[in-house]
Amino acid sequence: MEMEPGKIHTIDFESETLGETYEIQYYLPKNFSDLYKHEVIITFDSQDFFRYGQIERAYEKLRKNEEIERAIIVGVPYPSVEWRNDYFSPNGDRHDDFVTFVARELISWIDATFPTLKVGTSRTLMGDSLAGSFAFSVAATYPATFSQALAFSPFVDDAFIGRFQSQMSLMHLDLYHTIGLEEDDFITISKEQADFLTPNRKLNDYLSSEPLEYTYRELEGGHVWKSWKPELEPALKHFLG
């Protein structure tokens, strides 16, 4: 396995529990050394976090100025729009299985492979749109394992809000949640008309009343990386500062 710092690597990961192979990406920072323990950032829709969000550049800039702690970035890309609907969407057929995969197999592999801190408060999940719903879903299901999560413009419905309502230990969580003011009427990647703003405000109403660390931001703009990318630096500082 390649461990060259400052590069995005890709491997095929065979899941024993799901009997499937997934592509996993990982980025080791430029000053990576296994003498230090690292925090872990896991991004869903990882090819977009690298390509459009340029998350590794945001990380390196903040790290160079010593504004954040050492971290490695691991990512789960999506092979197709259909796959994304099956695995990342909260209503997808494979959603719950994939949540289990991340919480049991993926994090075990990360902790066995890299020098990590191995506690929930040193792990941050990130996702955009359906992948943002997925990041929140994993955190809501396993709040002690993954205490920190960011969702840019997640898909939300009443059943999704119910995932948080049924979880007793939300106090472990630190969530960062954004939605765009232009997301009251737009066309999704699946070519469907959607209003994300209203249900995201409903989720905000609920989470704001619960005993957790919670940051909510309504952004100028729509369901695009142009709105999300500027949020990466403040989010990294929030979670890794």
From TrEMBL:
Coiled coil: none annotated. It comes from the Bacteria. InterPro entries: AB_hydrolase_fold, Esterase-like, Mycobacterial_A85_antigen. Pfam families: Esterase. Signal peptide: none annotated. PANTHER family: ENTEROCHELIN ESTERASE-RELATED (PTHR48098), IRON(III) ENTEROBACTIN ESTERASE (PTHR48098:SF3). This is Esterase family protein. The lineage of its organism: Bacteria, Bacillati, Bacillota, Bacilli, Bacillales.
